[in-house]
Write a structure and sequence with these properties.
By secondary structure, this protein is an alpha+beta fold. It contains 8 helices and 6 strands.
């Protein structure tokens, strides 16, 4: 025999949620957005529980940072440095010293310049320079001492032509006998060394430097008994004085 039990209507919680589905979604979204945020009191407790950094650890970290910056800066500086080309020609050595020590004469402390070379030349050399004008003539006067104490006077002339070919022709002409030359400064009366009236009777030397012809004449007041030996000695001085052309400038 079955016993009939009384039936009651179902409670709302047994058949349906307390909140509609859309309300639950909104509530979950709000909870997700606030997740990770703690009340101020709990945040303060967590911060107090974190181990504090010691001054030594802070100093070590800063030192590592500075070392890193220095390494990076050094690498950037090295990368930005210009590099010389592999095929860069080496600088030619300059001849700064020779056998004799030359001194500028007080009579002419500075070189003299003129654009009219023909006016300071003789015979065929003058004719050549009239037909083939130079660009500039620069002359300077020097003295030097021989081992025996005698003084040698040297006139250094630098003739700049328009082309290297003209310079070559001028040098060839001046080296021939009886063709004249550029006047030395004694012959041109720019300086006075009595009883010398010219230095052409001493020693002569010349060379071509591209468009320039360098001419040197040297002589001394006192000459030895052997004229050939004297000429050879003066030529030696003139050869050494060719290097002075670099210091005259044009």
């Amino acid at each position: 025999m079955t016993q009939n039990l009384p039936r009651f209507p179902p409670r709302p919680t047994d058949t349906a949620p307390l909140y509609p589905a859309d309300e639950l979604v909104k509530l979950q979204s709000i909870m997700d957005s606030r997740r990770g945020e703690l009340p101020p009191q709990q945040q303060q407790q967590q911060q107090q529980q974190r181990p504090a950094q010691t001054p030594k650890r802070i100093w070590f970290g800063r030192a590592l940072a500075l070392v890193g910056v220095a390494v990076v800066s050094g690498f950037v500086w090295w990368v930005l440095q210009p590099t010389d080309p592999v095929d860069k020609p080496a600088a030619a050595p300059q001849k700064t010293a020779g056998e004799f020590e030359f001194t500028t004469s007080p009579q002419l402390p500075e070189p003299v310049k003129d654009s009219d070379c023909a006016a300071h030349a003789t015979t065929k050399t003058q004719e050549f320079l009239k037909a083939t004008p130079c660009v500039q003539l620069t002359r300077a006067f020097y003295t030097a001492k021989l081992p025996d104490g005698r003084t040698v006077y040297s006139s250094v002339s630098v003739v700049r032509m328009k082309t290297a070919e003209e310079a070559r022709k001028l040098k060839e002409l001046t080296e021939q006998n009886g063709t004249g030359n550029i006047k030395d400064l004694v012959l041109d009366k720019a300086v006075s060394v009595p009883p010398l009236t010219t230095l052409a009777n001493g020693g002569y030397a010349s060379e071509v430097r591209d468009r320039e012809v360098v001419i040197v004449e040297s002589d001394a007041l006192t000459k030895g008994q052997d004229a050939l030996a004297h000429n050879k000695e003066m030529k030696k001085v003139s050869q050494d004085a060719l290097r002075l052309a670099s210091s005259i400038g044009n």
